[in-house]
Amino acid sequence: MIEFQMPNLGADMEAGTLIEWKKKPGDTVHRGDIIAEVETQKGLIEIEVFDEGTIEELLIQEGTKVPVGTVMALIDPSAAVLETKKEKTTSEKPIALQPIEEKTTVFSIKASPLARRIAAENHIDLSQIKGTGEDGVITKDDVEQALATQKEQVPKGDKFPPDDAKTLAQIEAVRKAIAAAMSKSKREIPHYYLEKKIDVTKSTDWLIAKNKEKSVQELLLPVVLLIKATAKALTDFPELNAVWQNGLQLKKEIHIGFVVSLRNGGIIVPAIHNADLKSLDEIMADLNDIIPRARALKLRSSELSDATITVTNIGDGGADTIFGVIYPPQVAIIGFGNISEQPFAEKGMLGIRTSTFATLAGDHRATDGLTGSRFLVALNNHLQNPEAL
Amino acid sequence: MNEEEIKEIIFQLLKKIAPDTEPSTLKPDENIRETLNIDSFDSLQFIVALNKKTGIEIPEEDYGKIATLQALTAYIENKKT
Fold first, then answer.
1. Bond into B19 cis (ω within 30)
2. Is residue B2 less than 8 Å (CB to CB) from chain A?
3. Of the partner residues B20, B34, B44, the one whose CB lies closest to the CB of residue A264
4. Which residues 203-242 of A are in CB contact (within 8 Å) with B?
5. CA A342 → CA A273, A358, B63, distances in Å?
6. What is the reported pTM?
7. CB contact under 8 A, B41 and A208
8. How far is the alpha carbon of A316 from chain B, nearest alpha carbon, in Å?
């Protein structure tokens, strides 16, 4: 029997609240199917399943706050072994839920899945609502009524209009998540920092020419080249595409966590999966998909938990250099500053070139400056050959 | 499309991209991206949305010509006629 556990969606995550099961016992699941929706500090996340089989049992009730690693469901990988396995499972107790605050109160509340979902999205405490459904079950109407009352109660002339109550709670949650992860990083990871000025004239000229052949919907942003070049350079430096968990663990696949800044402050870092294997158009399509979803805090579990390294890009008009803070348990973060014209000396000549300052912050437990330096040289080389990206 | 209608479309599309801002308070010569804090990704989304709404294609080399509300309005007016 496969145990489906509450996934860890970031170094800072301790628990998530199960909002809704998307599958029921007896349903067949395939790799990548959405099994549940979980409310976390990073919004309402669709949790994917990474096994094939039939849902045997759902162990957690909707509305429960569940610590990371808790077994939430049992999945039978094969119908053929169902009979023999079944007995074994019933005798084996699932890992005890480690109750954490709120659990007991929330657990006993009866509410419809839709009501729970609306309540979670609007950060409404179900324990404060009286249910009018059968057996006192809280219905969608009850939650909407509570929501309307809550809005009325927000004093007029407040700094933020009532509609922003949800946004404010989200900003706060995101801030807390960043604070936890970055504090852990600076507490535990001995960072080293490197910088290289990279001439991106060839790359940007090539991109402008390429974009001329494209319709406005297909246009590529310069950051796509930076992401692809990073991914390609990483193939030669696997020790930077890794995590530090009881020692260095190399990751086979290159999933680039791309820092997306939220409009109301805060950042979120969804993963661009297998960036080294994707074409520039595919990476752009990924950005077009994940950036709006990241900003709406509507990502999938794999997008939040799979990143093997982070890329942060300041964008045009901003600061020239960014020295990142590593997102644990990763071991490196690559930063790109504003792309701007810079004086560039080469072979005794001085010229003005379109440039960016690329930086690397590395975990000194995992690698040394020499590795980081070689990586930045490789990154530079890839950006001098944009047609090969 | 007159100037007011063009501005109305611009405000509407900017509001979609930067919902926390009030594009209609933009001064004619203010840099749109800087004032509303719009990054290159959102800037591209705006150009795509503008293309869908008006049919106008703005080539990359013209991005410098549409930095302010006044410039953008004039650019669209010019392309439409």
1. no
2. no
3. B20
4. 208, 211-212, 216-217, 219, 221-223
5. 33, 14, 21
6. 0.75
7. no
8. 7
Distance CA A55, CA A73 (A): 7
Q: Does B37 touch chain A (CB under 8 A)?
A: yes
Does the distance separating the beta carbons of A264 and B34 come in below 8 Å?
Answer: no
pLDDT tens digits, A343-370: 999 899 999 999 999 999 999 999 999 9
Cβ atoms of residues A115 and A143 within 8 Å: yes
Q: What confidence tier does A107 reach under pLDDT thresholds 50, 70, 90?
A: very low
**Any chain B CB within 8 A of the CB of A377?**
no
Contact A223/B60, CB-based, under 8 Å? no
pLDDT at A8: 84
- Chain B's closest residue to A216, CA to CA, is B48
Which range (A34-43, A68-77, B18-27) has the least confidence? A34-43
Tell me which of A248 and A48 has the higher pLDDT.
A248
pLDDT at B8: 94
Tokens of B81: 């006629």
Which A residues, 275 through 304, put their C-beta within 8 Å of a C-beta on chain B?
Answer: 287, 291-292
Rounded CA-CA distance A154/A143 in Å is: 17
